[in-house]
Amino acid sequence: MEFYNLLDKIVQHDETHAKWLNTLSFMENAGARKISACEHSTKVDLIQLKHAAEEHRHAYYLKKQILKINPNFCKTYEKNEVLASIATKQYLHSLDIKACKYLQQVFKLSKEELKYAAYLFVTYAIEVRADELYPVYQEILTKTSSKIMVKSIILEEEGHLEEMINQLNKFSDDWKTHAEVILKIEKALYEEWIHAISSDILGRKYA
Question: Residue 204: what pLDDT?
């Protein structure tokens, strides 16, 4: 199911829409935790702290939007409250593992260096995806006159992408070549995730 049409279906059904918001919240929270896990014990810069804080805030903001639909929906991240829970939980984790494997082969890094490289490239790939996903979601929210809004997240994700590009420029002159490989890995995982969400919705007749 094409992404726009899938989201169009999702927002028409309150419980499904709440689960979609909760799914996005889970992924933002997982991203924030990954960023924190990549931090060096002492050499943490302002940008990395800012990213972790903002991703956590996005998770909180998305979770809070669910209250506008129904305060009793999706109070936790239990599997029955997240769309395609297995694929959702594997998406970022798989991207991290596959990116680390590739980066280690190419750059031959120490453990700490690999963590930082993974933070740069994985976050970059996720920000590229967010720059595509959230505007489509907002377009549908606007079209349906929804009370839900993600405009503030769109602005911050655009800022994150610029910051990641600046950091990658410092990391390697040839970063774009390696980023293309990571983006291909992410695209395959993203398509699996979207397919799983589509199957979940159709299978359970949410929407």
Answer: 67
Q: What is the dihedral of CA 93, 89, 38, 174, to 10 degrees?
A: 40
Instruction: Check the CA dihedral 58-59-64-68 and report its sign.
Output: positive
Whether the CB-CB separation of 160 and 204 falls below 8 Å is answered with: no
- Domain spans in the chain, listed from the N-terminal domain onward: 3-204
Closest CA to 87 of 7, 182, 201, 11: 201
User: CA–CA distance from 132 to each of 17, 76, 110, 162, 164 (Å)?
Assistant: 19, 27, 33, 15, 16
Tokens at 178, concatenated:
């390696």
Read off the tokens for 17. 């829409």
pTM of the model: 0.94
- Ranges of residues in the chain whose predicted pLDDT is under 70: 1, 204-207
